[in-house]
């Protein structure tokens, strides 16, 4: 770890001011649930910055735990090398580990977990042991047909990452990057067939999680078909109440 003496003063002051601003924010433990393309990835950085939360994406956490060679990371690596799925208990343990970081002091946003009711139950058990619970579940509700239009219309310029959409943000020349004139490509996942199977999995496995948390009275349904700025306003209303 770098010595504080080596950290530029501007960076240190910026971080101190950020922590000072964060100290007055209420703690929040949030879950974002929604099908692929519903806008979770657009809203989570905004929520994270506004409420000083840490963003816990299970895939990233697993990779970090494996890289850091934590006891749980070593277990996860062994499981993945056998081609098996990492158990729910192991994932919850890695979330528990990640939540102890200073950046998670004010709470967290969980994205991509829990995907099933049994994962939600295990997560709640772990939080109960710490004397905390999930404060809000943001349900990014959107019709499947809108998602198909959103996702299958996405095109990217591979080397720069610039994204276009045939309907919402088309390039000047169809199939061509505005800046370089190079051809655009579609991600393998951005096809109707892949989306269909991902949506089926979402409806079958993850929608019951919304019902599970609805019974606890913590679900807020968001109109995810609206433009991103309007969804941000809806999120702020929900989280400030």
TrEMBL record:
Keyword Isomerase in record: no
Keywords: Hydrolase, Kinase, Nucleotide-binding, Transferase
Keyword Hydrolase: yes
Record-stated family: Belongs to the adenylate kinase family.
Recorded GO CC terms: cytoplasm; mitochondrion
Pfam family, one: ADK
Coiled-coil features, chain-numbered ranges: none
EC numbers on record: 2.7.4.3
Reaction(s) this enzyme catalyzes, per UniProt: AMP + ATP = 2 ADP
Subunit relationships: Monomer.
Protein's name in the database: adenylate kinase
Molecular function terms from GO: AMP kinase activity; ATP binding; hydrolase activity
InterPro entries: Adenyl_kin_sub, Adenylat/UMP-CMP_kin, Adenylat_kinase_CS, Adenylate_kinase_lid-dom, P-loop_NTPase
Gene3D superfamilies: P-loop containing nucleotide triphosphate hydrolases
Domain Adenylate kinase active site lid as annotated: residue spans: 154-189
Primary role: Catalyzes the reversible transfer of the terminal phosphate group between ATP and AMP. Plays an important role in cellular energy homeostasis and in adenine nucleotide metabolism.
Superkingdom of source: Eukaryota
HAMAP family from the UniProt entry: Adenylate_kinase_Adk
């Amino acid at each position: 770890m770098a010595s504080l003496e080596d950290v530029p003063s501007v960076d240190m002051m910026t971080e101190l001011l950020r922590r000072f601003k964060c100290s007055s924010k209420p703690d929040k433990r949030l879950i974002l649930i929604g099908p692929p393309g519903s806008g979770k990835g657009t809203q989570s950085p905004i929520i994270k910055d506004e409420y000083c939360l840490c963003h816990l994406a299970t895939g990233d956490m697993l990779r970090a735990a494996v890289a850091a060679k934590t006891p749980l990371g070593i277990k996860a690596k062994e499981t993945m090398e056998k081609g098996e799925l990492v158990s729910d208990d192991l994932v919850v343990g890695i979330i528990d580990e990640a939540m102890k970081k200073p950046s998670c002091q004010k709470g967290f946003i969980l994205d991509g977990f829990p995907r099933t009711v049994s994962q939600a139950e295990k997560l709640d058990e772990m939080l109960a042991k710490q004397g905390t619970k999930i404060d809000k579940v943001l349900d990014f509700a959107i019709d499947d047909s809108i998602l198909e239009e959103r996702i299958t219309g996405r095109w990217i310029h591979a080397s720069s990452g610039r994204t276009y959409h045939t309907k919402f943000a088309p390039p000047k020349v169809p199939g061509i990057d505005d800046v370089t004139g190079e051809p655009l490509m579609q991600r393998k996942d951005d096809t109707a067939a892949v989306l269909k199977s991902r949506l089926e999995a979402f409806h079958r496995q993850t929608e019951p999680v919304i019902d599970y948390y609805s019974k606890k009275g913590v679900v807020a349904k968001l109109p995810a078909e609206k433009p991103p700025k309007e969804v941000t306003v809806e999120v702020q209303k929900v989280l400030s109440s």
